[in-house]
Specification:
The complex is a heterotrimer of chains A (244), B (254) and C (638). With 254 residues, chain B is α+β, with helices and mostly antiparallel strands. Chain B contains eight helices and seven strands. Classes of the chains: A mainly alpha (244), B alpha+beta (254), C alpha+beta (638).
């Protein structure tokens, strides 16, 4: 596979994920609209036609796998291309983000796995799978995403992990969003400046959008579900459940 | 000026190298960097030691022969300047200067600071030309070339083939060099008939030489003595993609 | 030595066509049986190698650099002349021919120059087709400028990097042939001897500069395109590696060396900053359009800040001496005037070598922005090298050696008097006479390589037939032994001085006595000092390292040793040519205005020197020059 083909795959799969994180972020922000909003949104996604639903998932998973696979191939070649490093290692204009793509990417891979097991498969805290995490919405029983998220981010260490990983995402995007246009040959000197700025902006928007939820939970801007519908007794039950 | 030098010494491609330290005094601030090395070598010869081998020729910034990494930066601290046009006034009296060769697998060290850059020639031999026989050319003004295109081609063609882009790239990628040549020829009407074939062949030659991959650090652009921009890499990426897509859909024609 | 120029019969306009129609050809199927050795990969060498390979000959090309793309043709800035007459300003092949003969001060061979002018137009076509990005006008057509005082706009250019772009064009054509396997390229190889078999040039001895091995190469013909010998002056605008070795070795094997004293000095170079200087950098002559050249009237003002020297204390010597041309006086005149002012003790730079080129008047008149627009890149380059801001303080300039018109003697076919040895580009003597016009060097290199040699070499090959000798034959043994013997000797001396120090000393002698103004007494002094220095060299040079492997000092020592012999021949020629013409100025022969005074009666000829043995005075032969088209005239720039 030629070097450029690898770069194209990197850029195209990156593009998919760049788009995905934005939509994901918008969805997350539903947390600020109360439990019904996010639960309804989540239910809508869960009940998409099977083909569409799995189509998205497979595309995302494939993108991730190809992205990581290409990254491994490229890094291996890059390391081989400079067997002996300089004794003085400096950079003239390479941004910190560009130089740490490998590090930020590795953290993100770890994060994505954690995140999927945390909130999608829900196996890290199996209680998220329990009855208590279902609720009624418009006459249907739906999964109570709101409750899970609040529960999830109420653990300070979890929130810290998320915030730190989102910082890596921010850095990764700050280079990637402009870089993917370059790799596909869709950039010139004028657009480089614009895209570079856009990439940084995009990184920050994604960062702030994502950390808003854990920060919101920790600062109680996003209130526990009980404050919307529940009674003190129910809240107590939840707490007991959690402490088990 | 008095200078402390830490210079990479290596006898041949197969032997291991190491740094050696030297001290030079009475270097004129007006001397060029290579003249400073001349002085060092005269001193070493007088001491009956082996002088430092380094590549140099025109000493006016155009032949692309000089290839020194100075304090970690190919061609040293001045922008748009080759090592031969870098002058000692940009250094401080008493400073320690670290001088290393270009470091990349396709550029093995021949001796000390001299490296072998023939993979660049191989890339050119694969497609860095317009296939026109001497005498087969039409009247020069028969094909007008819009001025902006001629200027763009000239920007790319200004490449001196020194290899600083490879040396500066953290991945030892040669894409600025290859991109410059692809952009120069592919943008001119004279180079269009071979556009697809050229970019595919040159990228193949580049890959097989063992250069690393571009990660869009833009270090190459920063150290390029002719300030060739990343645009040429974008064009190479674009041209290669379009060539490959055409090849995929119409294999018979390409 | 037999010197037959083999100029074809007929009117000058038809000579080349007639000749091409009469030469012998090699059948395309037979061409692969021939093997041509080309030494040098600059404009002439690369273009010749590519073209011969396209025709189907096997070519081996050698260069001392790490890539053929680095030959010093790359450094030419200004442009390339061609009689395209795109400006309809009266240019023609005839006028380019006329200007070149006249500019050469009537010391070039008319027929060669005419052919050069004819081929000039084809060069542009060829280069454009190769993708050379010449400057263009908005309509998309090629731009031209007038250059070097020409009255027509015939110079094609690619920014200030015309030589680079033309060389890269030739290099790309060469690369294509290397890729096809038709040319075998040997980088980092230096030719150290020519091998003659039965009087014909049939091979070379070359050293692989990386391994240090001495190698034998045989061919059906040998082509030298090895450039000029300006580095005999140590400081010149040439690249560090430029040397006379290949040409000089051929001379020692019997090739005649023509007009070695013709040297071109360029008036606007950046002066030497001190004794640690290794080369001089040329600045475009266009600077003289707006700069005024001056030195202080009084020697004691020379150390002062130029900006405080009052107007009446400045000597604008070019304007004073040549009122009508002023600062635009021709290269040789303004160079000599600078030397005179400095010899008068009024130099403003290191070592008594520098004059001011002042833009303050132009800046006051036109504004800094106009000057920046015209010369911004040159001012930048000046500042990069000197650290001075020429907008604020006058530039310092001084003349420097830049091009050598002399070279190995060749006939109309570009073949030397040694059969099978062809010489192209700056390495031969043929087209520029005693002085080369601006933007003509590139033209000659490419004309020789693309269009002349590919038409004349086959004639020789067809006559001698294919069949290169074995590299194990006696002439190869003998040549290799002499090369090795010399290297052993260089390595064995282990004296106290570096080869570079000898080179510097030789350069000083040459610049002083055989530089831009020469006289009998000085040349005789040089002829005493050069052999003495050579003697010392062979007693006291120290070449460190080993013969094996890369050893730049060994390379240098070999080149300096040849310069030390060559310099003597140059002085003999300068002494013998008892007249002033073009780049050769004998102070004894000048008009009252300080103009060169030719002696057409006695010296309208090519002086060709034949080697007569180590240390012996070479023997002079003469090729008379006949001017049928352009009649002798004296130039005047008053």
């Amino acid at each position: 596979m030629s070097s450029l083909l690898k770069k194209y795959l990197m850029a195209l799969t990156g593009f998919v994920m760049v788009g995905f994180v934005f939509v994901h972020m918008l969805g997350n922000l539903q947390m600020f609209n109360g439990p019904d909003a996010i639960n309804e949104y989540a239910h809508f996604l869960q009940t998409l036609p099977k083909g569409v639903f799995w189509g998205f998932r497979i595309t995302l998973l494939a993108s991730l796998i190809i992205h990581v696979w290409m990254a491994i191939l490229l890094v291996k070649e890059n390391k081989a291309a400079r067997p002996e490093d300089y004794s003085v290692n400096t950079s003239v204009q390479a941004s910190l983000a560009s130089r740490t793509m490998g590090i930020s990417g590795s953290f993100l891979l770890f994060f994505i796995i954690f995140h999927i097991f945390h909130f999608t498969v829900r196996s890290i805290f199996p209680e998220y799978q329990s009855e208590a995490f279902y609720t009624a919405l418009d006459g249907e029983t739906v999964y109570n995403v709101y409750k899970m998220v609040v529960a999830g981010f109420s653990k300070t260490w979890v929130s810290v992990v998320y915030v730190v990983c989102m910082a890596f995402l921010c850095a990764h995007l700050a280079h990637a969003v402009s870089s993917m246009f370059q790799s596909l040959g869709l950039r010139n000197r004028t657009w480089k400046v614009r895209l570079d700025r856009f990439a940084v902006l995009y990184g920050w928007v994604i960062f702030l959008g994502f950390i808003a939820v854990p920060i919101g939970v920790l600062t109680h801007v996003i209130k526990p579900e009980s404050s919307f519908t529940g009674t003190p007794a129910e809240a107590l039950v939840i707490n007991t459940n959690l402490s088990q | 000026m008095k200078l402390h030098l830490k210079i990479w010494r290596q006898n041949s491609a197969t032997e291991k190298g190491a740094f050696e330290r030297y001290t030079l005094s009475d270097v004129s601030a007006d001397a060029s960097f290579l003249e400073m090395l001349d002085i060092l070598n005269e001193q070493l010869i007088a001491e009956n030691k082996d002088p430092v081998a380094f590549d140099h020729d025109c000493r006016e910034g155009i032949c692309g022969m000089c290839s020194l990494t100075i304090n970690g930066v190919p061609h040293g601290p001045e922008r748009a300047t080759t090592a031969c046009q870098l002058h000692m006034r940009h250094f401080k009296d008493g400073e320690t200067i670290v001088i290393e060769p270009w470091r990349a697998k396709p550029f093995p060290v021949t001796k000390d600071l001299v490296v072998d850059r023939t993979p660049f020639d191989s890339v050119m031999q694969a497609g860095g030309f317009v296939s026109v026989r001497t005498g087969a050319s039409p009247e020069a003004n028969a094909t007008p070339v819009p001025k902006p295109i001629a200027e763009y081609a000239m920007d790319a063609a200004a490449c001196i083939g020194c290899g600083a882009c490879v040396a500066a790239c953290k991945n030892a990628s040669a894409m600025l060099f290859v991109g410059a040549k692809v952009s120069h020829l592919n943008s001119l009407p004279q180079g269009k008939p071979e556009k697809d074939r050229r970019v595919v062949a040159m990228v193949e030659a580049m890959d097989s030489a063992g250069f690393g991959n571009c990660r869009n650090y833009a270090e190459c652009e920063a150290v390029c003595p002719k300030e060739i921009s990343l645009d040429v890499i974008a064009q190479m990426n674009r041209d290669y993609a379009s060539a490959k897509i055409k090849q995929f859909f119409a294999p018979a024609e390409s | 030595m037999k010197l037959d120029a083999k100029i074809p019969e007929g009117p000058i306009q038809e000579k080349w066509e007639n000749h091409k129609a009469s030469v012998k050809l090699v059948n395309p199927a037979n061409r692969r049986k021939y093997h041509v050795i080309i030494v040098g990969s600059g404009l002439a060498g690369a273009s010749a190698a590519a073209t011969l390979a396209e025709q189907g000959y096997n070519v081996s090309c050698f260069c001392y650099q790490d890539s053929p793309r680095r030959a010093h043709s790359i450094a030419a800035q200004g442009g390339i002349n061609a009689a395209k007459n795109y400006h309809s300003d009266g240019d023609s092949v005839y006028r380019l021919f006329y200007d070149t003969v006249k500019g050469g001060d009537f010391r070039a061979r008319e027929a060669n120059v005419y052919r050069l002018a004819q081929e000039s137009v084809n060069i542009i076509d060829q280069c454009v087709a190769q993708g050379v990005p010449f400057a263009r006008e908005y309509g998309g057509y090629l731009a031209n400028r007038s250059f070097g005082g020409a009255q027509v706009s015939r110079t094609f250019y690619a920014r200030g990097q015309t030589g680079q772009q033309l060389l890269l064009g030739a290099y790309s054509a060469l690369s294509r042939q290397i890729g096809l396997g038709q040319v075998k390229m040997y980088n980092r190889h230096e030719m150290l001897d020519l091998v003659l078999v039965d009087g014909h040039a049939k091979g070379i001895i070359a050293r692989n500069l990386v391994t240090g091995e001495v190698e034998r190469w045989s061919g059906d013909a040998v082509v030298l395109a090895t450039g000029g010998y300006g580095n005999v002056f140590f400081l010149s605008t040439n690249a560090q590696g430029c040397n006379v070795t290949a040409a000089y070795r051929a001379y020692k094997r019997g090739a005649g060396f023509a007009n070695p004293c013709y040297t071109q000095i360029h008036p606007t170079c950046i002066p030497q900053h001190g004794d640690q200087q290794s080369k001089l950098t040329l600045m475009s002559e266009s600077l003289r359009n707006d700069g005024r050249v001056w030195v202080p009237k009084r020697a004691e003002d020379c150390q002062k800040n130029p900006n405080i020297i009052a107007e009446q204390d400045r000597d604008y010597y070019l304007e004073r001496k040549y009122p009508s041309f002023g600062n635009l006086a021709p290269r040789d005149i303004s160079s000599r005037a600078a030397k005179e002012a400095c010899d008068d003790g009024r130099s403003i730079a290191h070592g008594g070598q520098g004059v001011y080129l002042d833009f303050s008047d132009a800046i006051n008149r036109l504004g800094e922005s106009v000057i920046r627009e015209r010369y911004g890149n040159l001012f930048e380059m000046y500042e990069r090298i000197t650290g001075d801001n020429a907008y604020k303080t006058p530039m310092k300039i001084y003349p420097a050696v830049h091009y050598t018109m002399g070279g190995l003697w060749v006939d109309y076919n570009l073949m030397s008097n040694v059969p099978g040895l062809f010489v192209l580009g700056e390495a031969n003597f043929s087209d520029h006479g005693a002085n080369r016009l601006g933007a003509s060097a590139l033209m000659q290199g490419l004309a020789d390589g693309y269009f002349v040699l590919p038409n004349t070499l086959p004639d020789y090959l067809a006559r001698v037939g294919a069949g290169r000798p074995s590299v194990n034959s006696e002439p190869f043994n003998q040549a290799e032994a002499s090369v090795k013997g010399r290297m052993d000797k260089l390595m064995s001396i282990q004296g106290k001085r570096s080869a570079r120090s000898f080179h510097m000393e030789l350069g000083k002698i040459m610049w002083e006595y055989c530089g831009m103004a020469r006289n009998e007494a000085g040349l005789k002094k040089a002829l005493e000092r050069i052999p003495a220095l050579r003697e010392e060299f062979w007693q006291d040079v120290r070449v460190p390292g080993q013969k094996e492997g890369l050893n730049p000092e060994l390379e240098r020592a070999g080149r300096v040793a040849d310069f030390l012999e060559f310099a003597e021949m140059m002085c003999y020629d300068a002494l013998d040519r008892d007249e002033s013409c073009g780049g050769h100025f004998r102070t004894e022969h000048q008009t009252d205005d300080g103009e060169a005074k030719r002696d057409d009666e006695r010296f309208a000829h090519v002086s060709v020197w034949e080697h007569t043995g180590e240390g012996a005075r070479p023997e002079k032969h003469v090729e008379p020059l006949h001017y049928e088209e352009v009649h002798f005239a004296t130039r005047s720039y008053k």
